[in-house]
Design brief:
By secondary structure, the protein is mostly beta strands. It has three helices and 37 strands. It has a domain of 118 residues. Keywords: Signal.
């Protein structure tokens, strides 16, 4: 009897410690409950020697937390405490594993030297931080013009690219400085570029995107437009600044003629064939020459990196069928265009050489700040609604398009509004950055958006939705998510040849089940992702597996 009771007890404990859910061909398998007293995981950096490294947050406090690979069992948690450097408070920017070494990156403003500084801290197995190492220090006029840092690793995880961007609207100038770091955090290349432009009618300028490939080549995409009153048109320039490792990182400009189109945004991907593809949204010009500032369609430009030649430049208008799903049949047939509130969240290279583009309705509403000084707070509402799924052929033409219906919203309170994830100043903007600012993850936005899964030539999207929307595929019938912590995981799958969409809801779910946080994921291999979920009883690190 004692043995039987003991066995039943172990079974109950095991059941409570692990949770598994099946949604179509996707298995969500969560490890034991996380026993850390404080901190919700907001970012997964990756694995080193059988240990998973994550960044966790609770209010203003941050922690490095580790887990056991395979079982996803919680191991350690240590609060991050920084000493001020030259009077500057250090802000956490990133946690990364570069060629097997774990680093925590932070930034601060050096008041005495008038510099914005990006520093690295090594982390050992006991989660002890090393001394800060400056990897990029940029001269800035003053604290209010300290600019922002952006960063990303190369595809092979060996190089790490840091970019600082400063806006000087009065001088009609944007300045960026980049530092490409090797595995020892030594700078392989530094470059500072001043982009000066004339004060013209309706002048707009944007640093749209940047990336570093596995060869260590760096690409920066910029665009500008202005009203040419003499020619009664809007002139738009799209330029790639290319820095090739094989050429000693000498700056090369690649100019692209947009043929009378206005760029709304642009993202870059380096495809397997070695080409650089620039993909984004555009609007047409009116008869007066002014830009419509409406989302007319999607463009795909390819640059051959061997000689910088533009080998593809394709413009695709969204079909009436796609517009009907978004703005209704009557408006679509009248030729009305979409509002420019869609941002590209994923560029996925297809097996046939094309690219799948995921663009999501995204808006932020900043409320009135209340309070005084350090006690002041600002409410910000994040909305992430429907996703346009566009499949492009290898030649850039549109293969098919579809729409994932959803309506998600969350309001968070920030004690300060940072520039990370995008920054604007008048007519000048910077569009690069993460999906959501690190400063607000852990407060609600991490439940929004989607997880894109592309395996064996098939696209699947995991999104959180209200249980009242089970079976709903019509955007007009979707109910807004009222409680993000009561959502369920839903899978949308797409036929790669036709674009036909199928919605798959979980066949079995509990009232207070674990809710996945799409912004907290890490791809550990083909068909396998690390995920994070929580409910009122606790939080768990888990593994998402795609079955054939």
């Amino acid at each position: 009897m004692k043995k039987l009771l003991f066995t039943l007890l172990i079974t109950v404990i095991s059941f409570q410690a692990h949770a598994q859910m099946q949604v179509g061909n996707v298995t969500l398998d969560f490890g034991p409950k996380i026993t850390a007293k404080k901190g919700d995981v907001t970012y997964i950096a990756g694995e080193k020697n059988g240990t998973i490294y994550t960044l966790a947050r609770q209010k203003k406090m941050f922690y490095v937390q580790t887990f056991e690979s395979g079982s996803n069992k919680f191991l350690k948690s240590k609060q991050i405490k920084f000493d001020k450097i030259n009077g500057g408070k250090v802000t956490i920017e990133d946690l990364a594993i570069i060629d097997g070494e774990v680093f925590l990156f932070g930034s601060y403003y050096d008041k005495k030297a008038k510099k914005s500084v990006f520093a690295a801290y090594s982390i050992d197995e006991k989660l002890v931080l090393g001394k800060p190492k400056t990897v990029l220090a940029v001269d800035v006029p003053k604290r209010s013009q300290k600019g922002a840092f952006f960063f990303e690793p190369s595809y092979d995880g060996v190089n790490y690219l840091v970019m600082h961007v400063g806006i000087f609207e009065r001088d009609e100038k944007l300045r960026y400085e980049i530092a490409l770091l090797d595995k020892t955090l030594a700078a392989v290349h530094n470059e500072a570029v001043d982009l000066q432009f004339k004060d013209r009618k309706d002048l707009e300028f944007s640093l749209d995107d940047f990336e570093v490939n596995e060869k260590g080549d760096i690409f920066v995409v910029v665009s500008d437009s202005y009203r040419n009153k003499a020619k009664k048109t809007t002139e738009t320039n799209l330029t790639v600044h290319a820095y090739y490792a094989s050429k000693g990182y000498a700056k090369e400009d690649i100019d692209i003629d947009l043929k009378g189109k206005k760029v709304l945004n642009c993202n870059v991907i380096n495809t397997a064939d070695g080409r650089l593809q620039l993909i984004g949204f555009y609007s047409n010009l009116r008869k007066s020459g002014r830009a419509d500032w409406r989302l007319e369609g999607i463009f795909d430009v390819a640059v051959e990196t061997s000689d910088n030649s533009v080998v593809k430049e394709t413009f695709n208008e969204f079909s009436v069928e796609t517009k009907t799903k978004l703005i209704g049949e009557r408006r679509a047939k009248k030729g009305k265009d979409l509002k420019p509130f869609y941002r590209i969240t994923h560029l996925i290279e297809r097996e046939n050489g094309g690219v799948i583009v995921l663009s999501e309705w995204y808006t932020t509403y900043v409320g009135n700040t209340s309070g005084i000084g350090p006690l002041a707070f600002t409410p910000i509402t994040y909305s992430t609604n429907e996703i346009i799924v566009t499949a492009l052929n290898q030649d850039g033409t549109m293969d098919w398009s579809n729409v994932v219906p959803k309506e998600q919203q969350v309001t968070v309170t920030q004690f300060s509004i940072g520039l990370a994830g995008g920054m604007t100043n008048g007519s000048v903007s910077v569009g690069v950055g993460v999906l959501f600012p690190l400063a607000i993850l852990g407060e609600g936005p991490e439940y929004l958006s989607s997880v894109a899964l592309y395996e064996n030539g098939k696209l699947s999207l995991l999104v959180n939705d209200d249980p009242k929307n089970i079976g709903t595929t019509d955007i007009d019938d979707v109910r807004k998510v009222r409680n993000i912590k009561k959502m369920i995981p839903v899978i949308f799958t797409f036929d790669d040849s036709t674009g036909d969409m199928e919605r798959i809801d979980p066949t079995d779910y509990e009232k207070n089940q674990l809710v996945v946080r799409p912004s907290v994921t890490y791809q550990k291999g083909a068909g396998k992702y690390l995920i994070y979920g929580s409910n009122k009883k606790g939080a768990h690190l888990g593994t998402l597996t795609i079955t054939k």
